[in-house]
Design brief:
Blueprint (H helix, E strand, L loop, with lengths): L10 H26 L5 H21 L10 H28 L6 H22 L2 H15 L14 H8 L8 H22 L2 H13 L5 H17 L2 H18 L4 H14 L10 H9 L3 H7 L1 H22 L12 H8 L4 H12 L4 H18 L7 H35 L1 H13 L3 H16 L4 H11 L1 H6 L4 H14 L8 H10 L3 H11 L2 H11 L9 H23 L5 H15 L3 H29 L1
Helix pairs in contact: 1-2, 1-7, 1-18, 2-3, 2-7, 2-18, 3-4, 4-6, 4-18, 5-18, 7-12, 7-17, 7-18, 8-9, 8-15, 9-10, 9-11, 10-11, 10-24, 11-14, 11-24, 11-25, 12-23, 14-26, 14-27, 16-17, 18-21, 19-20, 20-21, 20-23, 21-23, 23-26, 24-25, 27-28, 28-29
């Protein structure tokens, strides 16, 4: 195999790509069968999930995207074989491993555990960089040498063999996060892949343009709508930016927005897709496994916070359009709504089926995902405009498996960290430290938890960031009386917005590259646009009425006051004409109004009025002069 072989001249390259396509497609069919037709032991499913992801990834590395054969192809092949060996070992030994690992492991158990960890580290390094593997290595070292540490961070110490055997179990690598990835998330990623090959991205973009393109600042508002819809299904802010942003960012720039602002809008819109029900990316399914509750409860609870997030972005985009004098696009340049619906509107039906099975029928998440996939296939087969050929079905199945590879690696590697936290008791100690530093003060505890969640999210994808934060920080909130769901959504929000939080804001960096704008400046503008996601979690942590935990009247009042608060927030950051003092007053008013309750509503409304005095006086003078 020569590294310079070309795609069209090298039959070995074509053979590898064909193998990956078919193997990945069959792997998805195995997952579907294992969760619906022929159930297997949970550990076998989790082990097979990580193994299949490893084989797909490492064999795929041999044939590069440039149409070449990897120089050190034999290393990737060895790693793929090692991944297969680990999976087969679990399949044939799992019934005995349940009783041995962590208690009395054999030498072969430890060897296979070490191979599993090393393969995971290399897979994660290639996919996401060094951050997550290095954190996992640090935790393993803590397990082995932590007995030498003094004070609260010390523990009795564990040998390397004890540590590895414990991690090579459902308490570590093959934990609940991998279970969610193997049983639920892969179905929804496959569902998104089928929607994509049917042309859903064009539907989302054209629908958004037809609905918002004519109004003031319509190009940016269309970008927000399209990005939220696509990001909801894709579950990756960076992938969403790379897919939808190549169209929406140039469109915003052509509409009159500055390059920097256009990139920031796309980053924020794509990031918010993970907060948008009914499909909240991938990490929300992991949350459902952690909490042991139906996913639909999380989706319902997230409706109001997601609405407030996008309301803030819409208002800031609108105020920027006011500042720049940007109008809507002419109707002649926009797709027609009914023509779009007539041509591709059927692709909304699978999403409606998904919502119906989850909310009305209240089926399991797995069954709802299967129904959504089958509905998409059925509609694609009978559709004339975007018919699903056998080749497209094969590609969609293959994309479902390749799309889960990163998450499988991330959740399994994060399982190492969670396993060490469990083995050493460090997770409970961190919660106790947070409470002791905060002095049982809820606000300080929330503040520390926010900082921990954002720091853990630096350089990490959402899933491992949430898993780690939920393990070390959420317990502190729960101890202070914050409901379990509110506590987990709190850390989840900051894990999500870490993609637009400097200094490591990957979604903003990707959008900045497309917009040809400074990446770091794009990150800071995106952070400002997404500021609501920094405040709203404090609101529902103090009062879970924003998570639909209350009467209809209580929820309606909370939505009203919080929406007014979001308006104040947008005025404080983006409305032209306010001075610094007014912006500060409006920001304080926003915080008070977003947090539900009469005690904060009255002073918040008063400050909102104060912040508007000069603007209102100027408006009256202009009106009198015009008369």
């Amino acid at each position: 195999m020569n590294s310079g072989d070309n795609l069209t001249e090298n039959p070995k390259f074509l053979l590898i790509r064909k193998f990956i396509t078919w193997f990945a497609a069959l792997s998805v069919l195995f997952h579907i069968a294992a969760v619906s037709i022929f159930p297997v032991d949970p550990w076998v499913l989790r082990g097979a999930h990580v193994t299949l992801a490893g084989i797909v990834f490492f064999i795929g590395c041999i044939a590069t995207k440039e149409g070449k054969i990897e120089k050190a192809w034999y290393i990737s092949l060895i790693l793929a074989i090692a991944s297969l060996a680990v999976g087969l070992y679990i399949m044939f030994e799992y019934s005995e491993l349940y009783y041995r690992l962590g208690l009395n492991p054999t030498r072969l158990d430890v060897v296979m555990g070490l191979i599993c960890i090393l393969v995971l580290f290399e897979m994660t390094r290639r996919l996401m960089g060094l951050a997550l593997p290095l954190i996992a290595v640090a935790f393993i070292l803590y397990s082995v040498y932590g007995g030498y540490l003094p004070g609260v961070f010390g523990h009795r110490g564990f040998s390397l063999s004890d540590t590895v055997s414990f991690l090579f179990s459902p308490q570590g690598i093959y934990g609940t996060a991998v279970q969610a990835s193997a049983s639920v998330v892969i179905l929804f990623i496959t569902f998104g892949a089928f929607l994509n090959v049917c042309g859903a991205s064009n539907l989302f973009i054209n629908l958004a343009l037809s609905l918002t393109g004519r109004i003031r600042g319509g190009t940016a508002k269309a970008a927000i709508v399209a990005s939220s819809l696509f990001g909801m299904v894709s579950g990756s802010a960076v992938a969403n930016v790379a897919t939808v942003g190549t169209f929406t960012i140039p469109l915003m720039i052509r509409g009159g927005y500055q390059n920097l602002f256009a990139g920031a809008v796309e980053a924020v819109g794509s990031t918010g897709g993970q907060l948008m029900p009914p499909i909240m990316g991938t990490s929300a399914f992991i949350m459902a496994e952690f909490l042991g509750i139906p996913y639909v409860e999380i989706a319902l609870a997230a409706i109001i916070p997601a609405f407030l997030y996008y309301l803030a972005v819409f208002l800031q985009v609108d105020f920027e359009a006011v500042r720049l004098g940007i109008k809507g696009l002419p109707s002649s340049e926009l797709p027609k709504f009914w023509e779009t619906v007539k041509k591709h509107g059927y692709l909304m039906l699978p999403i409606l089926v998904l919502m119906y099975t989850l909310l009305v029928v209240q089926s399991s998440t797995i069954r709802a995902g299967l129904f959504a996939i089958l509905t998409t296939i059925a509609l694609g087969v009978i559709s004339r405009s975007s018919r699903l050929s056998p080749g497209k079905i094969l590609n969609a199945l293959s994309d479902g498996m390749t799309g889960i590879v990163s998450l499988a690696a991330a959740t399994a590697t994060a399982g190492i960290i969670v396993g060490v936290l469990t083995l050493t008791g460090l997770g409970l100690r961190v919660a106790s430290i947070i409470l002791s530093v905060a002095g049982d003060n809820l606000f300080l505890t929330l503040l520390l938890t926010m900082m921990i969640s954002i720091v853990l999210g630096i350089g990490l994808p959402t899933a491992p960031s949430y898993i780690i934060a939920a393990s070390v920080a959420a317990p502190a909130l729960i101890k202070l009386g914050v409901p379990d769901l509110a506590a987990h959504l709190f850390v989840f929000y900051y894990a999500v917005i870490s993609t637009i939080t400097p200094p490591e804001c990957h979604a903003a960096f990707s959008a900045g590259a497309i917009a040809q704008a400074d990446p770091m400046k794009t990150g800071f503008v995106a952070f400002k646009l997404g500021l609501a996601a920094l405040i709203v979690p404090f609101a529902f942590a103090y009062d879970s009425v924003l998570l639909l935990d209350g009467t209809v009247v209580e929820v309606a009042l909370a939505v009203l006051t919080s929406s007014i608060g979001i308006y104040a927030l947008a005025r404080s950051t983006s409305y032209p004409g306010h001075n610094r003092v007014e912006r500060l007053i409006l920001f304080v008013a926003a915080v008070l109004l977003i947090i539900p309750g009469i005690k904060t509503f009255v002073p918040g409304l008063a400050l909102l009025a104060v912040g508007h005095i000069r603007a209102a006086a100027g408006y009256m003078r202009a009106r009198n002069l015009s008369n």
